[in-house]
Design goal:
flat, 469 residues, alpha+beta, five-stranded mixed β-sheet
Length: 469
């Protein structure tokens, strides 16, 4: 029970309902783990090291004679189809806004790679004549077939999820999908579980949010949960502002717009031929924004780094400025899809510095500067101020960084320096998985471990009567 997100859920389904209990082996439970996020949705079988299904949470809408069609997966959202537009069923707070689309997306992530899809309607496959009798037969079959009839499901949720946000997944899993058992677990607890720690301070730096979650003995200390929008998408916006403010401005031209290009020297204008579309068939601005984000993600992976020691806008021990020191560092090169390439020195530090010091933030009328309370050190300080003073040294000694944006070079070292400045007494230790996959999929891996335990049936539930949201 240590890892339940709701300790009152302790009713187990009957042994015949699912898994190995019916076969005499409680460890052989064919459970699935679903971990929805703003950027990607991860799904896979419990007990495995990595999720088999990693599907973008964005979806495409394309026009068709029968009306707009929704398309999922990378092949759909990254193809410049005529009139394509891109949307996300989740808000930037990490909670679901469009439940209908979110359900379809999650169902796709499960059926496309993990289980069989529902059989199609024979009356529409071109091989059968339409008849009322066939329609009635199919209605009976469809009412019986559900995608998770043989699979218990563990699903992750944010630490700030609302009551409605918790009830809806239960309804989907038990009623729409027919899952014999269901469990809703906090992602912060699962991230701690994946690191083998029952107590830790989880710093999750994802695409849309940074969240700080104190976990003690497998339970979230909810009053200490803090979050901020200064995450991966914010860094991308900082890069956009940085590129537009250089002289000359650097254009972010996605790959799909490039028909051909000629190599050029560093700093020279690009020589590319661009694709054209017939009027009314060009992809929407939302599609271009997503493709620009892919380019910026590549830049973050290749060039962006966190400055240390000290703050980029401060002075070093020799009396000079850290900005001058950053300019003397070996620059990194990066080539844009149109062939333009440049060496980036202090710019690669500037883009991420406002996660620690908002004085270095770039802003414009549509991107106001953040407040100091939204920075990473301030979030951790606010979180620790809400927990018992006796727990703070233990949490500071077990700070775990997870999430795709936590992979930015130098972030852990800088975070350690900032925390040591705020808390000079206790020992500060930053833990993070050395494996990129383990860092990006920490909450899913924790769920995989939990759902593979023979005691998983003791914390899951199989009907609404046992739900205590």
């Amino acid at each position: 029970m240590a890892l339940t997100s709701n300790p009152s859920i302790n009713v187990a389904p009957a042994a015949q309902e699912y898994g190995g209990e019916a076969d005499g082996d409680p460890d052989e439970i064919s459970a699935l783990v679903l971990d929805p996020g703003f950027s990607v949705t991860r799904a896979g079988f419990a007990g495995e090291d990595v999720p088999k299904s990693v599907v973008p949470s964005y979806y495409a809408t394309v026009p068709s004679p029968s009306g707009p069609r929704r398309l999922f997966d990378e092949n759909a959202i990254y193809s410049p189809l005529p009139g394509i537009s891109i949307a996300n069923p989740m808000s930037r707070d990490g909670v679901v806004e469009d439940w209908e689309t979110a359900t379809s997306l999650w169902e796709y992530s499960i059926t496309s790679r993990l289980t069989n899809t529902k059989p199609g309607d024979p009356s529409t496959n071109g091989l059968n004549d339409k008849s009322d009798e066939l329609q009635q037969e199919m209605e009976g079959v469809e009412s019986q077939e559900k995608i998770l009839e043989e699979h218990p499901l563990l699903m992750t949720e944010t630490g700030w999820n609302s009551g409605k946000g918790r009830e809806k997944p239960v309804e989907i899993a038990l009623e729409s999908w027919g899952s014999p058992a269901f469990f809703l677990a906090r992602s912060g607890v699962l991230s701690a579980f994946s690191a083998g720690k029952p107590s830790a301070l989880i710093v999750d730096i994802g695409a849309s949010n940074i969240s700080v979650t104190p976990v003690h003995d497998g339970l979230i200390l909810k009053k200490g949960t803090t979050r901020s929008p200064l995450a991966g998408n914010y860094i991308s916006d900082q890069l956009r502002l940085l590129f537009s403010s250089t002289q000359p401005p650097i254009s972010i031209t996605p790959h799909y717009l490039i028909a051909s290009k000629t190599p050029v020297d560093a700093g020279m204008p690009s020589q590319a031929t661009y694709r054209t579309w017939k009027a009314g068939t060009e992809p929407s601005s939302s599609f271009r924004a997503l493709q620009e984000d892919r380019v910026l993600s590549g830049f973050k992976e290749c060039a962006v780094a966190v400055w240390s020691p000290g703050r980029l806008g401060g002075h070093n021990q020799h009396g000079g400025t850290n900005l001058d020191s950053a300019r003397s560092q070996t620059p990194r090169s990066f080539e844009m899809p149109d062939g333009y390439n440049q060496m980036y020195g202090v710019e690669r530090y500037r883009a991420v510095e406002s996660l620690f010091d908002t004085k270095m933030a770039l802003s414009d009328p549509t991107h106001p500067p953040p407040s100091q309370s939204q920075t990473l050190p301030a979030l951790i300080q606010a979180s620790l101020s809400q927990v018992d003073v006796d727990l703070r040294p233990m949490l500071l000694a077990n700070v775990i960084t997870v999430g795709g944006s936590s992979l930015i070079y130098g972030l852990n070292e800088r975070l350690k320096q900032e925390l040591e400045g705020l808390y000079p007494g206790p020992r500060v230790r930053i833990w993070s998985a050395g494996n990129t996959v383990e860092r990006k999929y920490a909450s899913w891996i924790g769920g995989s471990i939990l759902a593979s335990l023979g005691t998983f049936h003791q914390v899951s539930f199989g009907n609404w009567d046992n739900w205590d949201g």
